[in-house]
UniProtKB/TrEMBL annotation:
Protein name as catalogued: Putative N6-adenine-specific DNA methylase
Organism: Paenibacillus cellulosilyticus
Domain THUMP residue range list: 47-157
Keyword entries, A-Z: Methyltransferase, RNA-binding, Transferase
Stored CDD domains: THUMP_AdoMetMT (cd11715)
InterPro entries: DNA_methylase_N6_adenine_CS, RlmKL-like_Mtase, RlmL_1st, SAM-dependent_MTases_sf, THUMP_dom
Length: 385
């Protein structure tokens, strides 16, 4: 019996679609379509488990139920009712409806949610022969997304976003999402044979994400997902995916990862996260101002998210810390540096123009990833390790 083919969507923060697409390709999903905010790809139910466990930079994994034109409530009702909801949702399933609408005639989100709910109930009645659904079983979050009068209907397989890895119980004042940290690390060309340093480490997100990448730890291993209780994604599929992920961990690789922060409370939070993630022996942390930071080793990478005016420091103080970072980097002959900042004066304060810049968003704050490309390690160095 051939496995059921399904369309899946990995949602992506704005500007990171290409990174998510590359991750999916590396996992073997080559049949894909990249659009704003999402990458659609083909899979089977087991791939719901695999992608939720392994995707480092995506926000969540959705099942694409259907897409159709919808300029009236009748269009929305009939289009929704035509989809195979009972194939996924059992008679006791809980199925709340969430919604968004942009540049569409159906602009009232609550009204669209009600129509979709009603259409799904009607479809379920036909299959299950009942007028009432208790909704006390597994959770199936339906999303109706209207854009330019086209409705996209999905089921959320993930639950809380994929950035919730499970190692960060406490956060510092201006945390960077784990998914964004992983994306910046991927852009940085860092690999485990190179030193990594974050002089504004905050809650330690870059450091832990790097260690997980270095040892090939699947980021979703420590958490649960909505679809773990779905009939079409049985428990044995999750068990197989987790066993495969555990087998692929390579904790024999030596890591040279360190970070510092001027705030002792931030270092305490980082220590808790590092310990929870299982890297207490691998990641070194110190309470230090950036001016005293002394990254060790050759061909290393500084990856950091300096504090800035909109979130933590006033602008003058923020520019001063960037200047100090620039001075530290001046002393590092063969290192690369990747800094995410909303500061328009970053290069001026740093006293050097970036080799490349990339627009990214930290929440709603528009930032640039300032990229200073040092030399890559000699090839024989990589082959020796």
């Amino acid at each position: 019996m051939t496995e059921r083919k399904i369309q899946l969507i990995a949602t992506a923060p704005m500007g990171l679609e290409a990174i998510v697409a590359r991750e999916l390709k590396e996992l073997g999903y080559t049949d894909q379509k990249v659009e704003n905010g999402r990458v659609t790809f083909t899979g089977v139910p087991a791939d719901i488990c695999r992608t939720n466990l392994w995707l480092r930079t995506a926000d969540r994994v959705l099942v694409k139920m259907g897409e159709f034109e919808a300029t009236t409530f009748d269009d929305l009702f009939e289009g929704t009712k035509a989809l195979d909801w009972p194939d996924w949702i059992p008679g006791d399933g809980e199925f709340p409806v969430e919604g968004r609408s942009l540049k569409s005639q159906l602009s009232s989100v609550p009204a669209c949610q009600k129509i979709v709910k009603k259409a799904v109930v009607e479809k379920m009645k036909e299959r299950y022969g009942t007028e009432w659904f208790p909704e006390d079983g597994a959770r199936f979050v339906i999303e109706v997304n209207l854009l330019n009068d086209k409705a996209l209907l999905t089921l959320d397989t993930t639950g809380p976003g994929l950035h919730k890895r499970g190692y960060r119980k406490l956060v510092t004042e201006a945390p960077l999402k784990e998914t964004m940290a992983a994306a910046i690390l991927q852009l940085s060309r860092w690999a485990p044979h190179r030193p990594l340093y974050d002089p504004f480490c905050g809650s330690g997100t870059f450091l832990v994400e790097a260690a997980m990448m270095g040892w090939n730890v699947a980021p979703g291993l420590r958490r649960s997902f909505n679809s773990e209780h779905w009939p079409l994604v049985p428990e044995e599929l999750w068990e197989q995916a987790r066993e495969e992920a555990y087998d692929l961990v390579n904790d024999d690789i030596p890591l040279d990862i360190a970070g510092s922060d001027i705030d002792p409370a931030a270092i305490e939070v980082a220590e808790a996260a590092v310990k929870k993630a299982g890297f207490a022996k691998e990641i070194k942390l110190r309470t230090l101002p950036v001016s005293k930071a002394q990254p060790q080793g050759s061909y290393g990478v500084i990856v950091t998210n300096p504090p800035y005016g909109e979130r933590l420091l006033d602008d003058k103080e923020a520019e001063k810390t960037i200047k100090q970072l620039g001075f530290v980097y001046l002393m590092l002959q063969n290192w690369s540096l990747f800094a995410m900042s909303p500061s328009k004066q970053f290069e001026q304060s740093f006293t050097r123009n970036a080799d490349k810049k990339r627009k990214l968003y930290n929440g709603r704050i528009e930032c640039q990833l300032y990229q200073y490309m040092g030399p890559l390690p000699p090839r024989n160095r990589e082959s020796d390790l």
